[in-house]
Amino acid sequence: MLKIENLQVAVGDKPILKGLDLTVPAGEVHAIMGPNGAGKSTLSYALGGRPGYEVTGGTVEFDGEDLLDMDPHERAAAGLFLGFQYPVEIPGVSMLQFLRESLNAQRRERGEEELSGADFIKRAREQANALGLPADMLKRPVNVGFSGGEKKRAEMVQMGIMQPKFAVLDETDSGLDIDALKAVGEGINRIMRDPQKGVLLITHYQRLLDYVKPDRVHILSAGKIVKSGDADLALELERDGYAEVLA
């Protein structure tokens, strides 16, 4: 589903990713772990097409298509979802308005009919209820005044509404308490655990992986995948740290 070969990415004049190789088949959840500065967020931004992250080499194939040849909105319409470590606030725009416009923009890009207001409200309420996000919060400006946990729940609501093929989740567990972590983990499993979908979880800690068990764990260091293994690799990292595992 996602195949990355020799990916090289620079920010300004500084190379960050230095020949990264990674394949995530459909139906699997892969976790990326690594020390600070390894290039984890750079990988997510490069996949999403964020300006300022220049791909200087390599290829990325997504669902049989050249991902790097697509604009960011085309990547989203093709089914790629990017979850941010720090979801942004958008004053003056309600969650409902933002989510409906986002969904229908993607549907138009794919040549599909827009969802009616009634059908959209039904879908939004179903997803909010499943994530434990009060429905009245959907009427508030995007993430304005939300706690860290509420922002991440809202992001999972967005993912549930969009129903992407592949989710790249950058430190989704950041700033979550135990209840929010469990809710977000259950949301990822409910929305994305599917033979036709895939997930790339970027995280520092094992705790999210207690709820979303990965099929593979990869260690990213100095811009490259340097070690891969099954879910036990994350437990090894938690116990021994990067220095011991990478020695």
Please describe what this structure looks like.
- This protein has seven helices and twelve strands.
- It has 247 residues and is an alpha/beta fold.
- The strands form three sheets. It has a six-stranded mixed beta sheet with strand order 6-9-10-3-11-12, sandwiched between helices.
- Helix 4 crosses helix 5 and helix 5 packs parallel to helix 6.
- The radius of gyration is 18 Å and the shape is globular.
- The chain starts with a strand and ends with a helix.
Task: Give a short synopsis of this structure.
Helix content is 36%, strand content 28%.
Helix content: 25-40%
End-to-end distance: 32 Å
The helix/strand series, from N terminus to C terminus, equals: EEEHEEHEEHHEHEHEEEH
Strand order of the largest sheet: 6-9-10-3-11-12
Counting H and I runs of at least 4 residues, what is the number of helices? 7
CATH class: Alpha Beta
Q: pLDDT under 50 segments (min length 5)?
A: none
> According to CATH, what is the topology?
Rossmann fold
Keywords: ATP-binding, Nucleotide-binding
Family: Belongs to the ABC transporter superfamily. Ycf16 family.
GO molecular function, one term: ATP hydrolysis activity
Protein name: Fe-S cluster assembly ATPase SufC
